[in-house]
Amino acid sequence: MIRATEIHAREAHFHPDDTITLDEMQRHRRRMAMVSDGGIAFLLDLAETVRLRDGDGIGLDDGRILKVKAKAEPLYVVRGQNATHLLTLAWHLGNRHQAAQILEDHLLIRREPVLRAMLEGLKASVIEIDAPFDPEGGAYGGAHVASYDHGDAHAGHEATPHAHD
């Protein structure tokens, strides 16, 4: 079986031979059998667990490179009434160990009706969308420095997803 043991950062210049579309959970792996969008079967076999990001490349041992595409997932856009309120909402989510993507004026979290009820009870605005999810990696490894540079990685988040009220 073809093996993948090398990851190319999305900032690196590479020419992909195919793509692989993965949700956030599938993009946080060390070892797993996978199939590219074009049908290339391979074994992801990394030395340690890696959080793959949209645009990263997976290097196959036959020389081909697969470009990672982040799959849209059912999420909530969470907005506060002001910055302090948003920080309070983030604290409540963190207190419940919920993965969250932190953006300048809102949070993205996975859809969960109990959380929605809690957030709305705390006077948050909660909107359903389908979008790629790239949560913070955590304090004990796995955090990615580029998570604070949301320029091109998150451009159009709210224009592209299908928003529902």
Short description:
The chain is mainly beta. It has helices at residues 83-95, 113-121; strands at residues 2-8, 18-22, 28-35, 41-51, 57-60, 65-70, 73-79, 101-102, 107-110, 125-131. The protein has 2 domains: 2-70, HSP40/DNAj peptide-binding domain (Sandwich); 73-148, UreE, C-terminal domain (Alpha-Beta Plaits), CATH 3.30.70.
Structure explained in plain terms:
By secondary structure, this protein is mainly beta. The chain has two domains: 2-70, HSP40/DNAj peptide-binding domain, CATH 2.60.260; 73-148, UreE, C-terminal domain (Alpha-Beta Plaits, 2-Layer Sandwich). Helix content is 13%, strand content 37%. The chain has two helices and ten strands; from the N terminus they run βββββββαββαβ. It has helices at residues 83-95, 113-121; strands at residues 2-8, 18-22, 28-35, 41-51, 57-60, 65-70, 73-79, 101-102, 107-110, 125-131. The strands form two sheets. A six-stranded mixed beta sheet has the order 2-6-5-1-4-3, with no helix packed on it. β5 (57-60) and β6 (65-70) form a beta hairpin. It is elongated, with a radius of gyration of 17 Å. The termini are far apart.
